[in-house]
Each structure stands twice: as C-alpha cells, then as structure tokens.
Amino acid sequence: MKIYCEKDYEAMSRRVAGILAAQVTLKPDCVLGLATGSSPAGAYKELVRRYQEGELDFSGVTSVNLDEYKGLSGENDQSYRYFMDSNLFDHVNIDKSRTFVPDGLEPDSEKACADYNAIIRREGPVDLQLLGLGNNGHIGFNEPSAVFEKETHCVDLTASTIEANKRFFEKEEDVPRQAYTMGIGNIMQAKKILLIVSGEGKADIVARAFCGSVTPEVPASILQFHDDVTLVGDEAALSKLMAEMEK
Length: 247
Ligand code: F6R
Prior knowledge:
Largest sheet: 7 strands, parallel
Distance between the termini: 18 Å
Low-confidence stretches: none
Number of strands: 10
Strand order of the largest sheet: 1-10-9-6-2-3-5
Bound molecules: fructose -6-phosphate
Order of helices and strands: EHEHEEHEHEEHEHEHEH
Oligomer: single chain
Mean pLDDT: 97
Number of domains: 1
CATH architecture: 3-Layer(aba) Sandwich
C-alpha cells in the first residue's frame, strides 16, 4: 500500500486531485469509481479548477458511483446524484449520460441492484476507485456485518451512519434509512483503489482497518487484500496508523 500523509485537508485534496488527474490524462477513456461525502469534496473542487484552467479533459471519461440513498431523486439536494452533479459533473465536460449512480427512485430493490450490477459489468472494470471511510469502517454503504456482500445490494443504514449523515439534513428523521450500494466484490474488482481520510475522528478506524484483522465487521479491512491501494490522509486521520506501523 502506498501512503501519502498530507499536512491538512487542502493538501490532501490537492494530492487526490493530482492522482485522479493523472488517471484521466494517461487514459482519457478511463472508468472512474467515485464517492460522495466531505472527504472527496475538496478534490472535486480542485479538479474543476484544473479543468477550468484547461489542464483536463473529461470528455472520454465514464464514472460509476458507489451508492445512493433509496427513495431520493436526483433533484433532491441530499441525493448522491445531486452531490455529484453540483460538485463535479456540472462544471466539467464529462458526458452526463456516461455518469452512473444507482437509481434511488427505483422502489424494487432487487431490480435497482440487478440493473446497477449490469451497468458495472458493462462499463467496467473500474480503473480507479475513489473511496471514503465511514467512522464504523464502512466503504460505500457496506456497513459492518457478518459477511462481505459481493455485489450491489440494498442496506439498512446503521444508527452510527444515520448519526454521522444527519448533519446534511434538516432533521434526523429526514435521513433515509436505506441505500443502494456497490458490494465489496464490485469494489475489489477495481484495478486501483484510492482511499481518502481526513480528521482526527477517523484515526482509530484507519488504524483498525489496516492493522487489525480482515473482517466484515470492519468492511474496509478487506482492502488489505487488494494489491493496488493508495491511502491519502491528513496527519490527524493517519496519526494512529503511523504510530501502529512504527511499533
Ligand atoms: C459516499 C460513501 C461513504 C463515505 C463515508 C465517509 O459515497 O460511499 O462510504 O465515503 O461515509 O464520508 P465522509 O467523507 O463524509 O466522512
């Protein structure tokens, strides 16, 4: 695993944007696996800046996002489709019809998941999969559980995830209770993984994910078995991992 320990969130975001930009430049028709949330927001802003300065061309890029809340439409400003449009897609020359997010408005979970798996199979393999890390070790919305789910599935969000995500909603009751997410198998099939973490609140779970045992109770721990993982974090988020590694 390659680790970049950056001074702060801004430096981390520049590093992540640089890795994504290199991918797009070296393979203009690449498939990017993308994530939402506060961790990648700064990197998307930096990519938009580079695009506006003429450094990047997204016209050949395809993207597949990790997840979407069940029940939210793309017009809902809390949906992950809305997040992607407003943070990245609306500001670069990506072909929107080549950007994929699970269909939050499909009420039939089996159909929504089967459709998304078919898209991933058709468009894949993902060249570079960007991931954030949940406080409980989730990646995508693969919550701690007894097994690693392989493919796209519908999950019941845990109390800790609802708690962490309520900051984006007016009130806690508004946070959807279910989501569609790529499975761990889908994620592990990406050629390269780019995991980003920021803030002291992530320090414990980063150390557990990479120095603890591989278990579905800490979904991100599976990344120990992927042979091309890059971890980019700020000093606060990586502090405990670095201390463990020095032991
Ligand atoms: C978002 C996603 C989630 C987040 C994770 C961390 O698409 O898949 O796994 O990456 O919850 O969120 P932030 O970055 O907001 O701390």
